[in-house]
Write a structure and sequence with these properties.
Elements: H1 2-6, H2 16-25, E1 27-31, E2 36-38, E3 46-52, E4 55-58, E5 64-68, E6 73-74, H3 76-81, E7 88-91, E8 95-101, H4 102-111, H5 113-118, H6 166-176, E9 180-185, E10 188-194, H7 195-203, E11 218-219, E12 224-225, H8 230-240, E13 244-249, E14 252-258, H9 259-264, H10 270-277, H11 283-289, H12 293-302, H13 307-333, E15 340-345, H14 346-350, E16 361-365, H15 371-391, E17 409-411, H16 412-424, H17 428-437, E18 440-445, H18 448-461, H19 465-475, E19 500-501, H20 502-521, H21 528-538, H22 543-569, E20 577-578, H23 585-610
Parallel strand pairs: 12-13, 16-17
Antiparallel strand pairs: 1-8, 2-7, 3-6, 3-8, 4-5, 4-7, 9-10, 10-11, 13-14, 15-16, 15-18, 19-20
């Protein structure tokens, strides 16, 4: 028994006395072929190490989830969660088990970090509800990625009513030693007045200070929820060229943050890059501003930032580059003849970009659009922005899904008709396009155009079983690379021979499932993790299924980012192809667990949306 423990991580690193104690605590059990170790709902009192033989793990439905061979463990999740068994485990052949009592197993994890890391569920080292926080004391590039605005709110805001006089507002600002004053009516933020407003709109204009403050306030100011990340707030300040940002919690004002507040909370960060991008005068300058991005992503991975946080940060820089190119294009062509919205699609819309991304975008134009009168302006505008993005480092979309393509540059009514056609006649090409365009987000221009389009599309797709069934079938084209005996199935040949495609075989299946669940319930979130959280709450996927997929998404995303960081450190362009030998036994085991989760959830989606027909 001691020999087996010495030959297997993580027990091979235990001190001799600890190893002797563990060997004494272990109970030996033999299971004949076909015997049941545990049934769904059964009590699990020990973690079972396979000393010889093999176990088979089946879902309650009978579907094969995995097989555990020599040196692998069963019952870990139930013991960690203190919950009943979720699956049936049986002996595939005559099997010898070493049972570690649950209390002893928990003690080992609590006292030996190597054991805790080895037996942590995929993604469990991160909280499910927020991106990972950086290590204590770290004020470098990860400083804004794990912190939310709620962390900066320390006191109730000082406010003023809209009917209060300008003089009263000025007195309150002086007494509280603040540079702005939110204007609140019936617990709703209706405006903001700043010391600059008092200087420029009152003193310089010779305005009577007895007038109501509503006469000089900025109405309906840009605001943000306190769940937003700090770097997102910094980018909002830079984008709108403002210095004060009201912070809401559930629609109620809870504070105001300034650029100075955020500067104190950060060191070198994505927000600085976004601000720099916003000052550049051409695509070459934007490319130059983004040059530190690969190193910054590498540093973030090294400091423990989550895939969720990094995806938001990298996508925010793409947003900043897009917004600046839109501003430069409008400066060159003149103001738009009718309102429009620049719409990000795909991974940018989902805020899941990594260092290497091409562009997917479209234009939604106001229905006052006249092709004869306005077509040339929008054609030239879209070409300038798309080609500018390409020059700044965002490759042109190989499928030409970009605003410079007339097919992706339409009035709102035409977009609604197009989506209606895709949903009503779900043919393969329509499904492929829909899977990209269902991930939409306004980046520049008149955002309500995209918001109305999204509301319309979600209403048409919600609960549409025919369309959802076809979407499910299309989503099954990407399957996890897990063989029947739980072995990793590698790419057999070509440039990426013997590797795993972490994007198409790992992450895309989860992205597809998250989209499917969101469409079924008509949920507006676009980010895959946010979709899974919302879908779990709405009931289109079980809470446990949503949590398992979130864990798998977090872990697979982190594996991909670590791989890309290694390539960046070696001076090579990042890709999505991971060689198994890059991974530790710990990561390989959890990779199999994550793929097994995805495979199981795909099977459940087929049963739910296509009646079990593949």
């Amino acid at each position: 028994m001691r020999g087996l423990l010495l030959s297997r991580p993580p027990f091979d690193g235990l001190p001799a006395a600890e190893l002797d104690g563990l060997a004494a605590a272990i109970a030996v059990r033999r299971l004949p072929a076909g015997a049941v170790l545990v049934e769904p709902g059964g009590t699990v009192t020990a973690v079972s190490l396979v000393a010889a033989g093999a176990l088979e793990v089946q879902a309650p439905s009978g579907e094969l989830l995995s097989r555990r061979g020599e040196g692998e463990a069963a019952g870990v999740q139930a013991v960690l969660e203190g919950a009943p068994a979720g699956n049936r485990i049986t002996a595939l052949e005559d099997t010898l088990l070493y049972d570690i009592p649950a209390a002893e197993f928990r003690r080992l994890r609590a006292t030996h970090p190597a054991v805790a890391r080895f037996f942590a569920p995929p993604g469990s080292e991160r909280r499910r509800d927020t991106p990972a926080a950086p290590p204590a004391g770290w004020d470098g590039p990860a400083g804004l990625l794990g912190r939310r605005l709620a962390d900066l709110i320390r006191r109730e805001p000082v406010v003023v009513a809209p009917e209060a006089s300008i003089a009263e507002a000025a007195r309150r600002m002086r007494q509280a030693d603040i540079s702005c004053l939110p204007v609140v009516a019936a617990d709703r933020l209706v405006g903001i007045v700043t010391d600059r407003d008092l200087r420029n709109r009152v003193l310089a204009a010779g305005l009577d200070p007895s007038l109501p403050v509503s006469a000089v306030m900025t109405p309906e100011p840009t605001r943000v929820e306190d769940t937003a990340l700090l770097f997102e707030a910094q980018i909002l300040l830079a984008r709108h060229r403002i210095h004060h940002l009201p912070v809401l919690r559930g629609g109620r004002l809870v504070g105001v943050v300034t650029g100075t507040d955020l500067l104190r909370a950060q060191g070198r960060s994505f927000a600085f890059l976004a601000t720099d991008v916003g000052t550049r005068e051409d695509a070459a300058g934007i490319a130059d501003a983004l040059r530190p991005l690969p190193q910054l992503v590498h540093d973030l991975v090294q400091t423990g930032a989550s895939a969720y946080g990094i995806g938001h940060a990298v996508s925010a820089l793409t947003d900043a580059a897009t917004l600046r190119l839109v501003e430069l294009a409008e400066r060159r062509l003149g103001p738009p003849p009718v309102p429009y919205a620049w719409m990000a699609l795909g991974s940018q819309a989902r805020q899941e970009q990594t260092v290497r991304s091409d562009q997917d975008n479209a234009l939604v134009i106001d229905d006052a659009y006249d092709p004869a009168a306005h077509g040339d302006w929008f054609a030239r505008f879209a070409a300038l922005v798309c080609e500018g993005l390409a020059a700044a480092g965002y490759e042109l979309c190989p499928g030409d899904m970009m605003a410079r393509n007339p097919a992706w540059r339409m009035p709102l009514a035409a977009w609604k008709e197009t989506f209606g056609r895709w949903i009503g006649m779900p043919e393969p090409e329509a499904l492929m396009k829909a899977s990209v365009f269902f991930d939409m987000r306004a980046v520049a221009g008149h955002a309500p155009l995209v918001e109305e389009l999204q509301r319309t599309v979600l209403a048409v797709a919600r609960g549409n079983r025919l369309f959802l069934g076809h979407m499910t079938g299309a989503a099954m084209t990407h399957r996890p690379p897990l063989g029947f005996f739980r072995n990793l199935v590698l790419i057999p040949g070509g440039e990426h021979r013997h590797s795993l495609d972490m994007k198409h075989a790992g992450l895309v299946p989860i992205v597809d499932l998250a989209r499917l669940y969101a469409l079924d319930a008509g949920l507006p979130p676009v980010n895959s993790r946010d979709r899974l959280v919302a879908a779990g709450e709405a009931g289109t996927v079980s809470a446990s299924g949503a949590h398992d997929l979130i864990d798998a998404l977090d872990f697979l995303g982190l594996v991909r980012l670590r791989h890309q960081a290694r390539l960046l450190a070696a001076g090579r362009p990042p890709d999505n192809y991971v060689l198994p030998e890059e991974l530790s036994p710990f990561d390989r085991g959890h990779l199999k667990d994550a793929f097994a989760v995805v495979k199981s959830m795909q099977a459940a989606a087929l049963a739910a949306y296509r009646g079990g027909r593949g």
